[in-house]
Amino acid sequence: MLPDGNFLATVASTQWGKTKSGVEQIVIDFKIIEGIHEGERILWYGYFSAGAAERTLKSLRACGWRGSDLSRLGTLDLHVEIIVEGEEYMGKTRQKVKWINQPGSTALKNPLADSELKSLAERMKATAALLPEAKDDANPF
User: Which domains does the chain have, with CATH numbers?
Assistant: First the structure.
């Protein structure tokens, strides 16, 4: 099972269907393509209800879908960054793909400007000087 985190993945397969309530859906089987979880798979469910359709379409775009005709989905061949988080449902926690993004597009809402980073670095120098140095990649804490 995948832990919470961000993973580089590719689409292994897709399936179309309906939920019990009749909402159309797509299921994408993602395959992790790097790191210690390479080869592991996780499913993502996209829904075409009024409240979820736009997000589902944006996710399909990130995977490589072009055009406007879902019946011509074609090959979803782009590498994507998926964000996996645990979700509790009926007393059980399961891992779920929360977001599908183009690689490198996950960004901070308020990134520091160069001048702000320099100011932060200057303020942290004294505190950092008090910390022990890491030795042989060991955790100093």
Answer: 5-101 (2.40.50)
